[in-house]
Amino acid sequence: EDQVTQSPEALRLQEGESSSLNCSYTVSGLRGLFWYRQDPGKGPEFLFTLYSAGEEKEKERLKATLTKKESFLHITAPKPEDSATYLCAVQAPGSARQLTFGSGTQLTVLP
Amino acid sequence: GAVVSQHPSRVICKSGTSVKIECRSLDFQATTMFWYRQFPKQSLMLMATSNEGSKATYEQGVEKDKFLINHASLTLSTLTVTSAHPEDSSFYICSARDLGTSGETQYFGPGTRLLVL
What we know:
Helix content of chain B: under 10%
Distance between the termini of chain B: 36 Å
Order of helices and strands of chain B: EEEEEEEEEEE
Radius of gyration of chain A: 14 Å
Largest sheet of chain A: 6 strands, mixed
Strand content of chain A: over 45%
Distance between the termini of chain A: 41 Å
Structural class of chain B: mainly beta
Number of helices of chain B: 0
Helix content of chain A: under 10%
Oligomer: heterodimer
Order of helices and strands of chain A: EEEEEEEEEEE
Shape of chain A: globular
Strand content of chain B: over 45%
Number of strands of chain A: 11
Largest interface: A-B, 22 and 25 residues
Shape of chain B: globular
């Protein structure tokens, strides 16, 4: 069974204080690892897809990396508007292409 | 990125009534859509996979007669909560699978908040 574990559950940072969020996974044949951002009361917003170990993707202050067992979401010099819950998901093999989500990391960036 | 809409954004209904939620992919065609449920401060739980032109596939523990799914076109899937009860109150979110040129991605709708009185 696919499993995704995210840590920490919650993270409070001062504005400008860089940090990383972790997503550990076990899956039989990774087809893709996804990062989403979710604001309260809204649907998840797509950030990145990573397909193979060693792959990296960047978007503004965010950078996602992937190894064979985990993914990191690095946040450089965060701003208060980066406050949100960040969700990691792995894509199951098979025709349905379902996503299995982790429980998320709630990030708060203080001004 | 691609856009997925949901309607309504929130609904309040009396116990025993049925509620229909629509999920539309606005700028791409989606042969597969997914329905999720999310409780406060919890992650997304997959309820069912909706395939255009065929029956939906439900996750274990999800009652297919309770949560009716119809995927009649490549841009529209509907979830009907039949005979809703207070325990069905939740945040329902759909996603649509986009087989884009840069790779496959699931885009999510904004969610529907259901409150059953």
